[in-house]
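To illustrate the input format used throughout this study, we show a single complete record. The first block contains the structure-token representation of the backbone; no residue identities are included at this stage. The design step must infer an amino acid for every position from geometry alone.
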């Protein structure tokens, strides 16, 4: 597909609903008692994988488009299925569901697409096995299909996480809700806390003190009304587009601003980006953001900041190609085990467009400021690489052809429509 080009960007878009919160709202609705209503559900392939998986496990979920109603069945109400459940490209579905199923005494097999079937699962299998569940990967490996046989008497654990991962933390929390006693999780770095927030929202008890989380089981949660804010990880593509495309100004409505997710805003401000906040909603943790073309300078991105912007690193790498100086991204080895190896894919594809970008063992080194040019590029089947390349095309001279743009529907089905809405000719 030929990517869209522009002279400048102007206009307003409403950011699509948060993917992490959408997954979790279906899961909490399923395992709670009573009715849950989800408003502003994200109708993207990944979240539909979660919805279909829980329907397959016997949860009554009524799909009315952007509004979803669930009659919760409690942890004990899930039903055994004979066929493997296919969760497509969604790592969040697979890892979190393993935590839920760790307490159901029947056997379930979860499989994914070719990308997900290559992603590491040992990180969730290990703590869940310590809690008493039986988990097996294909051919005794850590890779999906994964078969989980839960255990109705799960044991609480104290667990020092070897990787900073909200997916692993969440799987342990779902299992911990089904144990008898106190589970303590010590995070390597603080990662997104949507699961912890939702446990509280659904009437449960959980305590966080810095990197230490304590939770006691068993707990029975109660159905709620959930309103999903916009996804800062989707907004990120437009935040960057607005500052790197000349003569632009974009308004992004309903951007979720949970502090465990706002690393990109901290980085952009440090680089010199003009970002204005309006209509700030404290309860819903969201705001309207206005971005304008800005003069940018290089920064170093490392340490505790990495989990707060992990999914934004490909688009931040593009941003760095348009900043003065050398940007260094380190401590980001987790990027190698995302939907694709995002360190290699980002470097390879931006190099094709003329960027001075080098992959390292744990990140990227980017020299700016470079003019980008025409190229044939590939999404590697990864939604975030595909979207980053469309934004790169907006600042490049000449045509950019993208292979496999379909991957973008994993998280942002209306992405190209929103781009077209903002594109302006002089
Ligand atoms: C997610 C956590 C992150 C992130 C992913 C969504 C979540 O993964 O990259 O897109 O919803 O918990 P890790 O927890 O593996 O870092």
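Output of the design step:
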């Amino acid at each position: 597909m030929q990517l869209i080009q522009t002279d400048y960007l102007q206009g307003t878009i409403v950011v699509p609903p948060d993917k992490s919160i959408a997954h979790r709202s279906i899961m909490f609705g399923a395992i709670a008692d009573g009715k849950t209503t989800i408003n502003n559900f994200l109708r993207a392939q990944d979240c539909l994988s979660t919805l279909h998986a829980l329907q397959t496990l016997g949860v009554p979920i009524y799909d009315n488009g952007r509004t979803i109603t669930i009659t919760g069945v409690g942890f004990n109400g899930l039903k055994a299925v004979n066929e493997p459940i296919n969760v497509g490209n969604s790592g969040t579905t697979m890892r979190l569901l393993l935590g839920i199923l760790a307490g159901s005494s029947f056997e379930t097999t979860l499989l994914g697409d070719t990308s997900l079937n290559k992603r590491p699962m040992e990180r969730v299998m290990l703590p869940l096995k310590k809690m008493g569940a039986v988990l097996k990967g294909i051919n005794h490996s850590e890779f999906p299909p994964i078969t989980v046989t839960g255990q109705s008497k799960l044991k609480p654990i104290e667990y020092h996480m070897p990787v900073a991962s909200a997916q692993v933390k969440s799987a342990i929390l779902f299992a911990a809700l089904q144990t008898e006693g106190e589970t303590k999780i010590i995070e390597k770095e603080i990662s997104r806390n949507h699961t912890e927030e939702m446990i509280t929202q659904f009437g449960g008890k959980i305590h966080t003190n810095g990197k230490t989380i304590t939770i006691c089981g068993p707990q029975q949660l109660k159905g709620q009304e959930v309103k999903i804010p916009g996804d800062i990880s989707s907004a990120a593509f437009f935040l960057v587009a607005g500052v790197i495309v000349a003569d632009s100004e974009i308004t992004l409505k309903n951007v979720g601003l949970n502090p465990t997710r706002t690393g990109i805003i901290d980085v952009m401000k440090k680089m010199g980006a003009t970002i204005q906040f309006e209509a700030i909603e404290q309860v819903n943790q969201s705001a309207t953001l206005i971005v304008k073309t800005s003069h940018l300078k290089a920064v170093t991105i490392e340490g505790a900041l990495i989990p707060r912007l992990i999914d934004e690193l490909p688009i931040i790498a593009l941003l760095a190609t348009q900043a003065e100086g050398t940007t260094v991204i380190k401590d980001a080895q987790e990027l190698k085990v995302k939907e694709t190896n995002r360190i290699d894919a980002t470097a390879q594809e931006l190099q094709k467009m003329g960027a001075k970008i080098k992959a390292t063992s744990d990140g990227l080194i980017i020299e700016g400021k470079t003019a980008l040019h025409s190229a044939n590029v590939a999404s590697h089947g990864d939604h975030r690489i595909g979207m980053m390349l469309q934004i790169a095309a907006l600042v490049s001279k000449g045509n950019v052809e993208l292979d496999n743009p379909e991957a973008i529907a994993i998280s942002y089905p209306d992405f190209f429509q929103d781009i077209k809405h903002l594109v302006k000719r002089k």
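Structural context for interpreting the output: The radius of gyration is 21 Å. The chain has twelve helices and 23 strands.
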